[in-house]
Amino acid sequence: MAGINEITNGIETPDNRIRKPGGGKKKIIDNVENIDEVFFEILKDHTAGSPIDEEIKWTNLSLKDISNAFKSRDMNISPYVVKQLLKKHGFVERKMTKAVTMKDCKDRNRQFERIKELKEEYSNSENPIISIDVKKRIHR
Hints:
InterPro entries: Transposase_36. By secondary structure, this protein is mostly helical. It has helices at 2-9, 28-31, 35-43, 63-72, 79-88, 108-123, and strands at residues 47-49, 57-59.
């Protein structure tokens, strides 16, 4: 009744409040224990970033892929909540501009497997691991 009275009569916050501020259902990203750790574990090998601005990072996994990875760890996290996690941790959306490669490279998958092997080999050392895209387009 006090809430209806506040709305209809335009009464602002009374001193003798019945309801406490901050009520309502809490966000899943704030409630689920170790959600951030599992999130970063899922994205560990699927994260890239800008070499110019270290604050800019993205992932090549879709919201559904990340959600399914949570489900495989017995955590029911929806794609909507995954989007909240990405925003919380500063990930930006990045759209693919080209869906089909221009040419066929027979060892393309092997290149990525080799990069992963090297990354695992060097991850135990104190040296930093960087990835550089060296393609350059010449506009004439």
